[in-house]
Amino acid sequence: MEDLLRDKVCLLRERIKSSRDGKALYQELSDLLLRAGKISAAMNILEKSFALGNESEPAERSSHEGKWLFDRGLEFADAYLYEDAVECFCQAMHSGHDTFDAHYCLAGVYKSLDRLKDAETHCRRTLELNPRFAPAYILLGSLLKKPGRLEESIAACKKAVLVDPDCTAAYYDLACYYSLLAKREQALAAMEMALCKGFADFDWVLRDPDLETLRQNPEFLLLLQSYRPKTA
């Protein structure tokens, strides 16, 4: 259902871009989000349709405008309205909410838009502001993977587990990156750590294309079997 909603939202956003009068399309988009339960985002979009041609500031803004814009950006991102989210996060920073979480969220949205260079810039800014924020290292690793900078992806995930030794996602991603580099022993060791820390999505492990090399290791299936009962 979420994939279908995302596709519909993206289609409507493209139609709005090419439309001379987007008010009706904004209304359609708002109705779609309302039916999907994305109520805050639906109301934000509806407000946008009313504001077309009117440059007055929304009445809801207060002296804490940066936080207000940041929260609105989160609502847009949750509803797959990525371009609107970018606009809000950028305005939030200009309005004083120049925080590590704002940069982290903006990096994630840029990743969704496949703007990897922008995503990396804000991800690194996140870590400048908060070097102990493990999720940013994980996000950075995933961004570096796409252009094939796997050794840098591994380094990023290693930093994640240094600041958070129980970071399951970092160990899993390490297994993926080592597998892509055909380093089976390291991949197996990282996967064992992920399982030990609580990773339990066995169906995905058996389908994840990043782990194709690891699945060729006979010890891999034995490792999975040894942990399956613990999550039954």
Backbone structural class? mainly alpha
| Strand content range | under 5%
**Taking Cα atoms only, what radius of gyration do you get, to the nearest Å?**
21 Å
What oligomeric state best describes the polypeptide chains here?
A: single chain
Main β-sheet description: none
Helix content: 55-70%
Stretches with pLDDT under 50, minimum 5 residues: none
* End-to-end Cα distance: 27 Å
Shape: globular
Query: What series of H and E elements makes up the topology?
Result: HHHHHHHHHHHHH
Mean pLDDT: 89
Number of helices: 13
Number of strands: 0
Using brief descriptors, characterize the structure shown.
single chain; 232 residues; mainly alpha; 13 helices; 70% helix; 0% strand
